[in-house]
Amino acid sequence: MSSGQIAPWEWGLFGVVVVSMIFIDLLAHRTKRGETKKAAYAWSIAWILVGLAFGFFVWLRHGGNTAQEYLGAYLIEKSLSLDNLFVFLVIFASLSVPENKQRRVLFWGIFGALVFRGLFIFLGLEAIERWNWVVYIFGAILLVAAWRVARRHPSEESDNKVVDWLEKRLPVTSEYEGKQFFKHVDGKWQATPLLIALIAIELSDVAFAIDSVPAALSVSHNLFVVYTSNVFAILGLRALYIALAKTVHELRYLHWGLAAVLAFAGLKMVLSEWVHVAPLVSVAIIVTCIGISVGLSVRARKRDALRKVVPREEQPRGGRQEEIHA
């Protein structure tokens, strides 16, 4: 199915759904009650359900094969967006941004990402349509990205080079002005750490898009399918970050799962002329890669927790014996 078969009202419906959800999200987060971890989990689930519901709409309008492409592109973007969470953690930690000020930065950062992703997807599809050999370049980019992700767990990063570069070149004050991006100091406007964090997140997303957009294009070449799936996957990032910020670093094997997804997408593009992988098979492979990496991480976390408990035979004799926790 080509993007030309998409009716204008379908794009309009997509826009109405997205704008409505963003408006509801903003209203829900006007109070402190909407910023709790419990609310973040609820919103993460809500964004996932909306994304899957739109996939059901795609199935009703354009059939099962197109819906499978949508689901595959959505799962790839959702999986790779987990890597963004590590970058958010490093950026906020390096700038000592308080938790209650992070949400504003995330909102505008993700909003900007929607624009950049749209541009990258459009240019990527135009390039593939004009020059078939571009798919091999995209495939090579994904294979290199897979190797890079597999080499080192992102939680091991303690600083962000973009933040360091920006702090050396922009007039920055260490003081905050509420949740504003600028502060008036000695008659001059200076950037607060929130602006540095926002710019760093936007630039980081451009780098991520170089990997994630070709990965999505390995599943579908339909503009409507790729962009809508990307948008619904990205829009839940703020809530997902708030929900998992303190636990995502414990998923020690997640980067292997992400690397496997990138490698699969790269090989799929490189071998596309000779090997055809059905969209549903792509979905199964993506779910398997991420599922195994998360499952192994959870298992390792439980094993480490058990090792912190001193065995009973090593406890002092006499008196009440209890397990001593480290």
UniProtKB/TrEMBL annotation:
Membrane topology: Multi-pass membrane protein
Main localization of the protein described in the UniProt heading: membrane
Keyword rRNA-binding: no
Domain of life of the organism encoding this protein: Bacteria
InterPro entries per the UniProt record, alphabetical: Integral_membrane_TerC, Integral_membrane_TerC_rswitch
Pfam families on file: TerC
Residue spans crossing the bilayer: 6-28, 40-60, 80-98, 105-125, 131-150, 191-210, 222-241, 253-271, 277-298
Location of this chain's protein in the cell: Membrane
Alphabetic keyword roster: Membrane, Transmembrane, Transmembrane helix
Family per similarity comment: Belongs to the TerC family.
Protein name: TerC/Alx family metal homeostasis membrane protein
